[in-house]
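User: Before I run my own analysis I want an independent prediction to cross-check against. Here's the chain; please return only the structure tokens and, at the end, one sentence I can use as a sanity check.
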Amino acid sequence: MKKTIIKQQKSVRWIIIITTLVIAVLFLGQLVYYGHISYQKKINHEKVQELIDNQITLTRDNLNEQLELIQEWIDTKHLSNEDLGHLYERASLIYQQQGAEMTYYRYLGYALYYLENSDDKDYTVNIYLDLANFYINNFSYNHALEMLNKAASIKNFDELDNLQVKSYAYRMQAILEAVAGNNEEAEKLLNKSLEVIAMSSTGIYEEAYIAMDEIWLAYIYLESGRMDECGKIIEKYKDSPLLTQEIYREIMLRDFVIPYYETKCYYYSALNYEADQANNAEEFKNMSDKTGEAFYEFMTLCEENGFEKHELSTLLAVIEKYPVSDLGIQEGLYNKLDSLYTRLLEVNNENYASIIDSQIADSEATRADIEKSSARDTYRNIVAIIIVSALMVAYAIMHIVIINSQTDGLSGLLNRKKLDRKLNRLKAKGSVYTVIMLDIDNFKNINDSYGHSSGDLVIQRLGEILQRENKSGVKAFRYGGEEFTLLLTKDAQERASIIAERVRITMESENWAFDKDYKITLSMGIASGSGEDVLKRSDDNLYISKQTGKNKITM
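Assistant: Structure tokens:
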């Protein structure tokens, strides 16, 4: 019996020893593994910097090869958050050059996620500055200011260590001050940017950044009446390789080439206006020729590269600031304006900006989920119950949010997201349907003349009128702003014109507390079919109603 007990004790000791050794080996294995990963990250950091600084060049000949190389590094190498952020940012630039705007911003979102979780605050600031720059060039100045404020919240611009990023930050601040009319402050910031560049000696970016700063200084000189100083800068860069050599011209298109020709148009328009006012026929003819040449260069450049918004903005500003007496020139400008308005009718800067915001936020959330999934692999069993519970709670919350998010709070109608889902289902089934697009005529005048509370009242009243049409086969939606939509299934299709006319007459007959004599009318467009373009055709018909007198229905 005693021997048996001794044997049992020895067996227990061996079990304990073996178990301890296994745990120790596993623990040491984890230490070695993580130590190896840490070492690999340090080694790869140097290689990533070399890859970005030397091996990757943004030329159109090998963009796909560059993307494959970057993706290979992201997928197969142990990298720090900083290096992942740099690689994703570089990939985003390649996608931008390929014209894949949405992918560009998705990868920019990935870059932001990793950089915000690294110590490289300067580079994170740089990406937010890129976003601000995008919004500025799409005339979404509120979004640009928001991005600039986010950049400043990460690190004070005066404390940035990277001189290139610091100069960039001052320039973005200066541009927003300039578009707000604060030329004196904008000039100070541009001079600060130039002072920062003067402290740098990389030989890589300095020449380009000086040109970007100076062309904005030229614009400010023009706005403040310093024509000679503006002219000197325009003359300085007229034969610059940044304008004349294709490789630089493509890279500098947004930040220098377009602003240069835009400022050149303003400059010659101002000189042309002065000659016209002074009745100097010879000088006026000379300046008219130069102005025409400048505009031809500028408009051709804009239309070849998708910068029609800049073209439109510049033409409007020139017509307002420097009107000319020559009827031929006037007619040409107005014809061009009409053409641009038609092409840009459906472009909505703020909606596009919201799409970009959503894309970036989704990218960051996606990368966060991927990283969390990877981290959970080592202790999945411990947190399984927590994850399931969290998912159940998240599902319940999302279910509530989805239900509540289907209705527009002001009008009480279904919202745009719900409309999109309905349309997608109808398209998927190949069903025939009808869309009635409605727009409140002169709605801006209501807000301007009677206040936004009166505008809200109009939205609510129209919502009530459209709610009455919510019967079998008919659904009412608020499309956005002062636009509304009625969606009719095939069974209700024959009643489309009757419903539209009833709504139009009812709205026109309403009395308003803010002005009993004021009549509010609606313009409408109707289209039917089963294809992808029914909504667009109804919107086109709405546009015809608006352009041909308003308060009417076009089918």
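Sanity check: The beta strands are 433-440, 474-480, 483-489, 522-529, 553-554.
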